[in-house]
Specification:
- The protein has 284 residues and is of the alpha/beta class.
- It has 2 domains: 209 residues, Rossmann fold; 66 residues, no CATH class.
- A 6-stranded mixed sheet has the order 6-7-8-3-9-10, sandwiched between helices. It has a 4-stranded antiparallel sheet with strand order 2-1-4-5, covered by helices on one side.
- Helix 3 runs antiparallel to helix 4.
- The longest helix is centred in the middle third of the chain and has 18 residues.
- The mean pLDDT is 94.
- The chain binds adenosine-5'-triphosphate.
- The site of adenosine-5'-triphosphate has 11 residues, from helix 1.
- The site of adenosine-5'-triphosphate (ATP) has 11 residues, from helix 1.
């Protein structure tokens, strides 16, 4: 069953669309990178999937069930503001989690906390650094034993060690339990090593979506003379030019014309190419 599917989903705040006509589906047991610049609509999409925000148009389904104003029992959501009670200790917060959730594993929370070297279970939440609070929030999210884990910018305030710990915990979660993880970031570098599936959004719209290897395999970067661009076959995503040389990102490229060199893009250059195209469309 598809963990998360969106059909023509849009969200309008007053006159402005935060998310527009988004259609995608997320494969089971994979790590999905929800990437896009600031203000792209990532948090809005995740909040809609968690049932916290109602779409203006379209529909989201979680494991086949339409999301209707409440979180699906198989979903955990880590919100960007990490809502935790500052005057409780980490241990007390975990006990509160147990009392608030029908399905809960204290053992799982303790297991995750034990893997997070920088988190003291007896410390009051308000004394913790932002990074440690994020780690506690992730442990609590896993305590719900989710089948779908939605994480809004989970790595943004973690130091390199905590980031590494967190990624290992999430990788083990996917490998051992088959959990699907959707993680947002405005930096692809955060997620590049771990993601199987890419969902790139900008200006509220999906720019590209799919299995990372398949997406990469469909694209080519061609370098050649600016005067010869009309010879290129394939769907042009974007291009940059110096006086003499053009660098063109193509989808489903045809044969390479004489005088042109071909390079396989990495995920970084592919994402940059799509974001450049999106920005150019907005400028027009
Ligand atoms: N509650 C709200 N009321 C009005 N506008 C909103 C609200 N929430 C989000 N927006 C607007 O919707 C757009 C998308 O915001 P969103 O937070 O979803 O983007 P994002 O990709 O998560 O950005 P960031 O990486 O900065 O967190 C932005 O222009 C934002 O200002």
């Amino acid at each position: 069953m598809t963990p998360l599917a969106a059909t023509a989903v849009g969200k309008r705040y007053r006159a402005r669309w935060a998310v527009r006509d988004c259609t995608f589906s997320v494969p089971e047991g994979k790590v999905v990178a929800l990437v896009g610049p600031n203000g792209a609509g990532k948090s809005t999409l995740l909040r809609m999937a968690a049932g916290l925000v109602r779409p203006t148009t379209g529909e989201l389904r979680v494991f086949g069930t339409p999301v209707r104003g409440r979180i699906h029992p198989d979903v955990s959501f880590l919100a960007q503001d990490r809502p935790l009670y500052g005057n409780l200790t980490v241990r007390e917060m975990a006990r509160l989690g147990a009392s608030m959730n029908d399905r809960w594993s204290t053992g799982r929370v303790e297991e995750v906390l034990a893997l997070q070297a920088g988190v003291d279970e007896n410390a009051e939440i308000r004394t913790l650094s932002a990074g440690a609070r994020t780690q506690v929030a992730i442990a609590l999210a896993l305590g719900r034993l989710p089948r779908l884990l939605l994480l809004d910018e989970p790595l943004s305030d973690l130091d390199p060690l905590a980031r590494d710990e967190t990624l290992r915990i999430l990788m083990a979660e996917v490998a051992d339990r088959g959990t699907t993880v959707v993680m947002s970031s405005h930096l692809l570098t955060d997620l590049r090593e771990v993601c199987d599936h890419l969902l790139l959004v900008d200006a509220g719209r999906v720019q590209i979506e799919g299995d990372v290897e398949e997406v990469l395999a469909r694209h080519r970067i061609l370098l050649g003379p600016v005067t010869g661009e009309s010879e290129l076959e394939g769907a042009r995503v974007s291009a940059t030019r110096t006086q003499r040389q053009a660098t063109v990102l193509l989808r489903d490229a045809g044969p390479v014309p004489p005088g042109w060199a071909e390079v396989a893009p990495d995920l970084e250059s592919l994402v940059m190419g799509y974001l450049r195209a999106s920005r150019d469309r907005r400028k027009r």
